[in-house]
Amino acid sequence: MISWIAARKGRMETLTAEMIEAIALEFQSMPGDILKSYRDPPGRKPNERLLCLRDSIACIDDETLEALIRDVVDAAVFQMVYLMGASFKSGLDLAVNRGDERESLKGAVLHEDYRAHINPGGLPVKTA
């Protein structure tokens, strides 16, 4: 996948743009990892909840189940980045920091930046 930041040539890279890109990249492996833990719960004595889930989803094919997981994860991540940009609707002043750099998230449209990477339903945006 071509870097979304690189695709925005001419615009300065920002900490929030880097944060959203990192979230989008992490998102890509999450549904598959979750599916794997549902199909084969980890540990010598797996969590009872995971064993119950494993048994409940036994008749669902991997493609359908991964699409469902991808959709749920996407909805949760989208809502979280929206709330971060909206200061959790409570007037909090959230910021991204690296060294001496600080960038406020107040008023940031993080959910739109996230959608520039990830389509509704969790599939990555195709870039040229």
UniProtKB/TrEMBL annotation:
Top-level taxon of the source organism:
Bacteria
* Protein name listed in UniProt: Uncharacterized protein
Lineage, uppermost ranks: Bacteria, Pseudomonadati, Pseudomonadota, Alphaproteobacteria, Sphingomonadales
